Amino acid sequence: MASHRQPITTPVTADLLRGALDVERTAHGLLPHRLPARARRQIPDEQLAVAEAQPSGVRLAFRTRATVIELDTLPTKRAYRGFPAPADGVYDLLVDGRLTAQATVAGGRVRTADLTTGSADLREGPPGTARFADLPAGDKDVEIWLPHNEVTELIALRTDAPVKPAPAGGRRVWLHHGSSISHGSNATHPTAVWPALAAARGGAELVNLGFGGSALLDPFTARAMRDTPADLISVKIGINVVNADVMRLRAFTPAVHGFLDTIREGHPATPLLVVSPILCPVQEDTPGPLVPDFDGTTLRFKATGDPAERTAGRLTLTVIRDVLARIVAQRSADDPNLHYLDGRDLYGEKDYAELPLPDEVHPDPAGHRRIGENFARLAFGPGGPFSVDGDRTRQSGTSRPATH
């Protein structure tokens, strides 16, 4: 570490982390998890096991006078057989809430998946260092947002000045659950994932439970949300249920009720926003399963179900939105803090015409910005379910949001 001050090594401990629900000690260091151990023991497939360990929204948060910061990590990068090697994941460093520097860590492990067979193999690699230099002098609050798309084991934190955990900022905690879009697919760096953008605009402390391919109404995810302290909660439901073709209408409706019931066990009056899927033309009226369609240069996805089978209970995004709107309307008669947001208000036909989905499913970086801006306006803005004025109104009445 090039500095006139002697480097200080600070153990990476859970009290330096935000956005993680659990941590695991490994042979190399500390591995943040976005699901608790009890839930992880019930995970049925590698898809979710990898996704929850990718630290979307997880960051180190501390106060320091350091001008040089080094973070040693062991990343596990995700690759697909037959496709170019992925770019190294990005570490975003924020000083007093402003993006100030970025770094990457070369090397590490590489998990290569075969999209046709579902198999994967892991190649070992060495740890590396994310280095940030020439930072502003003086006391400051620092956050290092970990790559949203790389499993990241934290080994050592070195600085040229002492570090202490950042004090609680008094911001409301926003707990969000969703699919790969919420996880950050196609976003270029961790603070550019749409929930991170919306949280910054809304002045909220984000806990992001966006799991690529795995927003499937799993009971263990609902229990994790039930048990996680939060002032604001949102669940974005539907796209994975359709593209994985895991349910029919008969099962979907009670599964949504059960998911919401479980969350309400721990958060009986917290503002709870149900968000339906954004526009996705390939699945609007065609059931899943969704399969990759690779032409040798470009990856796209296509739906392979038969639209005629909708009458037999096969799910499409159009059906999902109708069901979710009906469920929320029914439940909100007794639950005034339950709200519904049509995902097409976040990204709809006009947005698709301007910012098309590159692979027909996931937005590009500009699409993430659009979704984040629209969510911040509709949820956190005046009159929205997460607005500060609305929160004050709820707290002054009989339906006080749960705090933990």
In a nutshell, what does this entry contain?
The protein starts with 7 loop residues before the first strand and ends in an 8-residue tail after the last helix.
Low-confidence stretches: 395-404
Estimated radius of gyration:
21 Å
N-end to C-end Cα span: 41 Å
Shape: globular
Percent of residues in helices comes to: 25-40%
Characterise the protein shown here:
The protein is about 25% helix and about 30% strand. The protein is α+β, with helices and mostly antiparallel strands and about 400 residues long. The strands form five sheets. Strands 1, 6, 9, 10, 11 and 13 form a six-stranded mixed beta sheet that branches. Strand 19 (about 290-295) and strand 20 (about 300-305) form a beta hairpin. Helix 5 (about 220-225) packs parallel to helix 7 and helix 7 packs across helix 8 (about 315-330). The longest helix has 18 residues, at about 250-265. The two termini are about 40 Å apart. The relative contact order is 0.13.
Task: Tag the structure with descriptive keywords.
single chain, 404 residues, alpha+beta, six-stranded mixed beta sheet, six-stranded antiparallel beta sheet, 11 helices, 25% helix, globular, disordered C terminus
Structural topology:
Layout: E1 8-10, E2 17-18, E3 22-25, E4 30-33, H1 37-40, H2 46-53, E5 59-64, E6 69-80, E7 90-95, E8 98-104, E9 109-113, E10 120-123, E11 128-132, E12 140-145, E13 151-159, E14 163-165, E15 172-178, H3 180-183, H4 194-202, E16 204-210, H5 219-226, E17 232-236, H6 239-243, H7 249-266, E18 272-275, E19 290-294, E20 299-303, H8 317-332, E21 338-341, H9 349-354, H10 365-380, H11 388-396
Parallel strand pairs: 6-9, 15-16, 15-17, 17-18, 18-21
Antiparallel strand pairs: 1-13, 2-5, 3-4, 5-12, 5-14, 6-11, 6-13, 7-8, 7-12, 9-10, 19-20
